[in-house]
Amino acid sequence: MTPKTAKKFNTLAEVDAYLSAKKLQCLECGKSLVMLGKHLKSHGMTPKQYKLKWGIPQERGLAGVEYRQAHSDKLSAMREEGKINHDHLADAAKRIDYDSRTALTSASKAAHIEFLAREQPYNAHRISDGGKRANGKDATREREYQRQYRTKKRNSSP
Known about the structure:
Elements: H1 12-19, E1 24-25, E2 32-33, H2 47-54, H3 65-80, H4 89-95, H5 109-119, H6 139-156
């Protein structure tokens, strides 16, 4: 596909085919790159503008399949080692302003909330109520303390 024959994607199958290559071809100039993010600055575009122009859903990355897989593997390893977790997702999901999101986002508000309620990825490592943390403190009291602390910190910010 060359930029002259490139046209806006109409189906997710077309988007998937485009994003399944090792390198992605810039639909503006035709260059093949592992990741398009920084390259788009040369066209005076942001990734969001590029996605809107070409019909790519906002939640999709602009990187080749091998790069995305390597990044996914790296994050999975960090999750398994305990370096990162999903504690922030419950509060973050409540703060999403769904009205300002673009029409290209495939998941609706109801579907997203239903998924989080069903899967609860942020609770995968949670100590059950009444359980003790490694430091011997009650897990339920510690969680409540953290909620109060975050609320106080958020409300005291200018």
